Amino acid sequence: MTAPGAGLRVEDVVVLYRDDDGTTKAAVDGLTLAVAPGEVVALLGPSGSGKSSLLRAVAGLEPVARGRVTWDGTDLAGVPVHRRGMGLMFQDGQLFPHRDVARNVAFGLQMQRVPRAERARRVAELLDLVGLAGFGDRDVASLSGGERQRVALARSLAPRPRLLLLDEPLSALDRALRERLADDVRAALTATGTTALFVTHDHDEAFAVADRIAVMDAGHLLQVDPPAVLWHRPSSRRVAEFLGYEAFVAAGSPVGRALTGEAGAPAPDALLAVGPGSLHRVPDGVAATVRGAGFRRGVVELVVDVEGVGRVTVVEPSGDPAAALPAVGTQVTVRADPHRVAVVGGYG
Ligand SMILES: Nc1ncnc2c1ncn2[C@@H]1O[C@H](COP(=O)(O)OP(=O)(O)OP(=O)(O)O)[C@@H](O)[C@H]1O
Question: Any idea where the ABC transporter domain is (predicted)?
């Protein structure tokens, strides 16, 4: 059981920037968030929503104009960056080019004056953890982008920071690599019990790494919840739209009832969000017109206009390689899978 106030607390924090014309603008606008010891929280939001500003304020790199940042209940105001016991990792791992992999990873341990033998042990342990066992002697210039970020992760974990701050650490990598590394980052953070705040604008990454996801928009926190709760119970239409839900329908309306069927319908006043994968074609359902069809990574995506609902993407397995895609204008009928619609605003 964790003591109340343990770990990181961000209380009503405001971060201001001064524009060229002298006016001030709040990049973070009265935000409150807690990260418990051992927890990984992703800050997810569109570009410019204030994620990096919040991270930098926690690190002590940006002044806090209002509110406070505490660790285990102690106010960090006035505590300089290097005394906060936090690790930082950025998009470009910023490795030291003149040090080999092992000496990069050992950097923080040298700063802490950890004895040589123990340092070597810890470096080997970390390289193993990030999947780079045996890479110690390699010149960092010879590494791939993904390997560099693995080294950067090992380096930031080596001194056992009480909080690791990661700012878009995978953004420079291509998608396939990002997906794999997101799982590996999660595994490394979990294995070391590291408390972490992970900034990303990539939904899949946030869902892959985090115990809880904090959705930010325009300097505000819209919702913070575990991934499954966020996905199935977005707190507002805004959050649901940001997650990729495409259309909204009142559960109790005629079309809402027709879509979900009697058994699947939640409270009649609930607002349902439907998106890619929520609907499937059935012989008798709600009328819809095909507006587009495409083949993507083993599935067929049909963009359909559903009567009384709007434009939604139907995702179907593509079983038969010889089957033609439905033509634009084809009339179909659809129904919702009750487990694949979200209930907006805490109903259900
Ligand atoms: N040094 C600065 N001076 C002035 N304005 C800034 C400064 N840094 C950030 N901003 C502004 O503050 C707002 C939030 O920026 P921030 O970088 O925190 O957002 P973000 O969510 O991390 O975005 P991104 O994903 O694009 O990095 C933006 O409108 C940005 O233009």
Answer: 8-243
